[in-house]
Amino acid sequence: MFFLDSQEQYSSDHLLHESMADPNHQSPSPPCANGHRSTISLRTDQGGSFCFLCFSNLVSDQRVPTVHISYALHQLSIALSEPIFLRTLLTSHIHFLVSPLVHALSSIDDAPIAIQIMDTISVLCSAVESSIGEDFVERISDQLSSGALGWSRRQLHMLHCFGVLMSCENIDVNSHIRDKEALVCQLVEGLQLPSEEIRGEILFALYKFSALQFTEQNVDGIEILSSLCPKLLCLSLEALAKTQRDDVRLNCVALLTILAQQGLLANSRTNNFSSMSLDGMDDDPMQTTETVVARPCLNVLFAEAIKGPLLSTDSEVQIRTLDLIFHYLSQESTPSRQIQVLVEENVADYIFEILRLSAEHSFRKRLVIGFPSVIQVLHYVGEVPCHPFQIQTLKLISSCISDFPGIASSSQVQEIALVLKRMLERYYSQEIGLFTDAFAIICSVFVSLLKTPSFAETPDVLTSLQESLRHAILASLSLPEKDSTQILHAVYLLNEVYAYCTAPTSMNKTSCIELRHSVIDVCASHLLPWFLADVNEVSEEATLGIMETFHSILLQNSDIQAKEFAEMLVSADWFSFSFGCLGNFSTAKIKQRVYLMLSSLVDVLLEQKAGSHIRDAIPCLPTDPQDLLFLLGQDSSNNQELASCQSAALLIFHTSWIYNDRSLQNERYQISYSLEAERILFHLLNEYDWDLSFSNIHVQSMKWLFQQESISKSLTYQIQKISQSNLIGNEVHNVHGDGRQRSLTYWFAKLISEGENYAATLLVNLLTQLAEKGEQETNVISILNLMIKIVSIFPTVSDNLIINGIGSAIHRLVCGFTNSSLGSSFTTLLLLIFNILASVQPGVLIKDESLDAVIIKLLNYLRLRDTAITQNHEGMMVIGILSLVLYHSSDGALVEASRSIVLNSYLVSAINTVVAVACSKGPALTQYQDETDIGKALAFTLPLYFFSLRSLQIVLAGAVDWQTFFGPSSNLDTLPVVCIHCHNFCRLMHFGTPQIKLIASCCLLELFTGLSQQIDIKNEQLRCSSGYLKSVKAVLGGLVFCDDIRVATNSALCLSMILGWEDMEGRTEMLKTSSWYRFIAEEMSVSLAMPCSASNTFVNHHKPAVYVTVAMLRLKNKPAWLRTVFDESCISSMIQNLNGMNISREIVILFRELMQAELLNSEQVTKLNRSFQELRKQMHRNGTQDETVEEQEQQTISSIHDNGEVRNYLVQLMVSNSFGRTSGSETYTEKKKQVIEEMENFSKL
């Protein structure tokens, strides 16, 4: 369609024919009937076209009949509903509509047409692609600011449209109001008009304008509002007091609430309204001096203005008014006068008049309507300590929820819970006081909320409930005087909450599970300790309530936390405490509750529903434990009730005993020991089939059983049962002791480790019997695995197994193996031997020679299987066992077995072959990682060689010439033992993997140590050539700065020994010109002189260089450059850096050698002595604060198939026993002792 000029009537002749073009494509429109060009027209989906110039002329001409304008607006509305038309309009022609629409709105008095125009503007501004809203805001705000329209009907439409535009989120209103001050002034002036409709629109516009300023923090707008605030408040409150329309009230209350939230009410209420009005009197011709003086102050006017909204029938008006009161009173600078005025003006009466509880059904309906208002009142009275209407408000809330369970929505439930939580939180923190009745009602309201249908729909409210419950309990427990009434209400809430979260409908919900755990935590952490400590001051009713809560937790015995809570009860001597309660309250209710709870406690602890014996006998049970013992001494053969009581009594005493509740076993409850009863018991144990793994037993009882030699047959059978349970992984945690319940295997291991019983003897004898009888391998394997398990639990078990002859039992098993068939138990036996040797004390092995024969068998196994090179799991484990035998020989144990190892020709040849093959690889050795065949062979044979070197001093004392290791390899076969020469180790250290470097460096250090001792004892000279030593020193010197501190330390120690030997023979001339040795000394000195060297780790990194430097300082002919390196400045900085963190034995030795080399002056020596003295005092002051070191379990091997585990253990054992160990295995006490000794030696020089 298109429009003719404004003088012509609309005619259907001007409709264009439908276009057959693609509906998604806007084809060019032909010129309209008035000749306007097609570029200002758009086609519609119906086939017509819309000429924007015609439309503009039509709506802008006041002479055009309104029916034509209404029709044109209707057609435009239809076209705007078409997406393509709207999208094209917004991108090309939209600005043709802004001016005519605003002009029409400002000039037309017809309300329906004005509504059409506003709807059209709203559609255009709310479109996603639209950016035209700012233009409308700018033009309409200009019209309103100018006051050109006066306060007419047309102004009403403009105000309404302006309010609609300010509500659009996609319009930047603030930036497009040109004159904010003029606009606000015109709006404020308009509040004086008599039209309530216009005042309502003005109040809404002011409300939206104010909200925008404060939300966007527009400084100019806020200043304008602040400057006009006195007059604005005056006129707004007067409008609120006069109006009877709820829509005007809502707009006015919303505006006042915004101003109150921003503190503008607080800034204005102290001024008298006469002064406020006089300030603007010159601008307001309607005001006179008489009217100004007659106006009351703000507080009074506010009180008068809110009475009408409070009595409104619209619940939203009442809620918003209560919210306004809340913000009005919540401002920081609220004076007491303000509250007093509200009270004097009877505002509280207005509130409670409409909320007052009535027995009539009609009022109940009105109360339901006013429920939101009650919540708003609750916000206020909850914040004021001991408010006089606090209890009445809480009662209203409680009544509404209990009488009408569906009244509270999810959001209201959450709102109420938050307010009540805040009240309890402030009460617990003693920030506010709380009436006793108020506390009780709060607990009751929470219980009522739990029963409302909408409670489950608000997961967040569970968090509030959880915190409220904790605050209620803690507040009750922290009262200075015991108030059983308050704790009773808190426990009532606790019970109801636990019942809610354990109901079938809530049981598996995540939020309810967390709430249930919270309840148990409150009981365990707070309620239980308080109850145990103050039971004598708690009333019977509160005692029943607390026990009921505890009982409810125990009834959920499938819950892990319930089991933990039960164990906590028995650890607190609950059985004795329960009988104490029976002594305090001798009523039937207490007796019933005590025994019911004990029965459930037994159910949870013993897990066999054994508590039914106690429940069945409750009517006949006495209240005194002594009476229970008396009943046990009676004949019950003809008395079923007495028999039931005896069963219950035995169950109570048995459970209390296994959980160490010893207070029931004091002297006056002792029963005499009966030898006849013991004989009968032993007879029953030997004759009848019983299973210890299915019996709940205390560790003391178990220990007593294994001390009885007369039932050894039955105990041997029980050991077999334990081994079978251990083999299939079905260990039962049924033994009680040290306050915890552990597995039977654990306590069996502890019995053997402690000794003083027959457990170890029976276990070894059982293995011996199985070996002699040739039992099935499964039985043997189960016993061997049990031994492995108990050794891993308590390594000291190995000592008692050796003492009780495990070596002989192992020898019998080994003798049963043939070379053709070793059996599957062989691998398990090897694992046991390894773990025993890894954890046994050498002193125990010295007295046992049975393992010597076992070692011979294992050596034969290696020779026949040739496993030293083929690398099977059994062979590796055998080599590991041989290494441990050699390790113990250095302490005088297994000497004969060690001698057999070091002199075994096959083993000597095999090890030499492995090393020769590896060394022949040269630089290519770096490609052979630890998991290759060569890498594995070296990783096992080198530790064996290391321990053989340590063993040589014992097994072949004086028979080995250590100089033989330092020369060519041509005389390899002349030695009776394994001989890996020094240069081969240098190759391995230079080309090997990091692990091979470490192992080889330890072996080389052991060679150097042996040679050094030989040179010192025999006063020999080195027989190796200078060239040989030069090559060795080149390798060692390069490794002083190795990343692995252990390799670097070992290399430095070896290099230091060479320097000492050369010094004895006067061959140290090369040091004077050696740049490498000077670099070592300089690197160390500069590092120690830097302030960053305060770290202990940093100093440890430079220990290898310290060792080499000390060796050079000890030379007879010291290099002259040492004095240059350690000049006065360097040494002073090193001394200054000394502290308790970086001091070490090596550092003190370094300073001692510097002093003996006359490189320290007297002042530096004095400073050092003073520093050492302070450090000694500091160490003594610290005492043993760092000496407490957790006992580390001896490492054991869990599988024979894990070669890496065995290899790592051997390497760690080798490193920790190396002369230059830097593994950190020394305790703090050992290190401190070494440092103190060296500092004392320094002070004596």
Question: Can you characterise this structure?
Answer:
- The relative contact order is 0.02.
- Strands 3-4-5 form a three-stranded mixed β-sheet.
- Among the domains are: 32-178; 180-270 and 296-361, Alpha Horseshoe (Leucine-rich Repeat Variant), CATH 1.25.10.10; 1039-1180 and 1230-1243, no CATH class.
- It is built from 63 helices and five strands.
- The protein is extended, with a radius of gyration of 49 Å.
Give a brief rundown of this model.
This protein is mainly α and 1245 residues long.
Q: What about the largest sheet?
A: 3 strands, mixed
Q: How many β-strands, per DSSP? A: 5
CATH top level label of one domain: Mainly Alpha
- Kindly report how far apart the N and C termini lie: 118 Å
Helix content: 55-70%
Radius of gyration: 49 Å
> Low-confidence stretches at least 5 residues in length (pLDDT < 50)?
1-27, 270-294, 357-361, 1184-1194
Could you please say which CATH topology of one domain applies here?
Answer: Leucine-rich Repeat Variant
Q: Total helix count? A: 63
Which range does the strand content fall in?
A: under 5%
InterPro entries: ARM-type_fold, PRD1
Protein name: Protein PRD1
Question: Keywords for this structure?
Answer:
1245 residues; mainly alpha; Leucine-rich Repeat Variant; three-stranded mixed sheet; 63 helices; 5 strands; extended; Protein PRD1; PRD1; ARM-type_fold
